[in-house]
Amino acid sequence: MPRLQNMAPAAGSKRMKGTSIYRPFVYGSTARRFNDDFPRPDHVPADHTHSWTVFVKGVDNTDISYWLNKVQFKLHDSIENHIRNVDQLKPGETFETSATGWGEFEITIKFYFVPESNEKAQAFYHHLDLHPYGDEANQKQQRETNEVQSWRYDEMVWNEPYESFFEYMTTPMDRSKGGKGGMGKGTKMMGGGMVGSTGERTASIPYSARPGQPFSKETEREEAKKLRAAQEKVDQTTKDLQKKREGIEAKVAQVRKELVDQQARLAAMGG
Ligand code: SLL
Question: Closest residue (by CA) to atom 13 of ligand 1?
Answer without folding.
Answer: 101
